[in-house]
């Protein structure tokens, strides 16, 4: 697993051993960022200069990819200790400590946001059905800015947009289905 594009292009990312963390594959991240940059509702300005939230961060690949492509800041929410260690190592390897905040927090019960984020990534464990409750909790805690783009990774078989969000795009990639949503 590596950073696909931008100033950290080619940087290898550490991942914890075992199946507890399921990093987003390189090709899926590439497809997601291609959508973000080239869709009529997207554009480079949706990433460049953005404040990003990577919830259920795991290795931090999505947030670090956004930073590599020009985002200003990224916050990461993760609870697994092994994933937190890998996440912190990846941030240090990219020398992005000054632009990152790592919170050992559950995305379904997040702390209050310091600032709302215009770009939100969610990749919860597939089997636990946490997407809808996480989006509601993150919205209530002030993490999701009005007009934000929310990039959600679902299992391929279950990809209904949650209530309160408009579906902007949807793409299947193997066992994953990417949904790009907007609140409201």
From TrEMBL:
Keywords: Methyltransferase, Transferase. The keyword Ligase does not apply. The lineage of its organism: Bacteria, Pseudomonadati, Pseudomonadota, Alphaproteobacteria, Acetobacterales. GO terms for molecular function: 16S rRNA (guanine(966)-N(2))-methyltransferase activity. Its EC number is 2.1.1.171. It is an enzyme of class 2 (transferase). It comes from Belnapia mucosa. Residues 1-20 are annotated as: Disordered. InterPro entries: RNA_MeTrfase_RsmD, SAM-dependent_MTases_sf. It comes from the Bacteria. The keyword 4Fe-4S does not apply. PANTHER family: METHYLTRANSFERASE. The gene is rsmD. Gene3D superfamilies: Vaccinia Virus protein VP39. Residues 1-12 have a biased composition (Basic residues). This is 16S rRNA (Guanine(966)-N(2))-methyltransferase RsmD.
């Amino acid at each position: 697993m590596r950073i696909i594009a931008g100033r950290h292009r080619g940087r290898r990312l550490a991942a914890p051993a075992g199946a507890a963390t399921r990093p987003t594959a390189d090709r899926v991240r590439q497809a997601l960022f291609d959508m973000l940059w080239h869709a009529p509702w997207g554009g480079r300005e949706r990433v460049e200069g953005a404040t990003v939230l990577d919830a259920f961060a795991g290795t931090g690949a999505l947030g670090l990819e956004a930073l590599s492509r020009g985002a200003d800041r990224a916050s990461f929410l993760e609870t697994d200790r092994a994933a937190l260690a890998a996440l912190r190592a990846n941030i240090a390897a990219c020398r992005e400590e000054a632009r990152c905040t790592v919170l050992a927090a559950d995305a379904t019960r997040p702390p209050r946001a310091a600032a709302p984020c215009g770009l939100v990534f969610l990749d919860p464990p597939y089997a636990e059905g946490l997407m809808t409750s996480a989006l509601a909790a993150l919205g209530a805690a002030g993490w999701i800015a009005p007009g934000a783009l929310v990039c959600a990774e679902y299992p391929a078989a279950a990809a209904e947009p949650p209530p309160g969000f408009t579906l902007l795009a949807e793409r299947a990639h193997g066992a994953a289905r990417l949904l790009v949503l907007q609140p409201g």
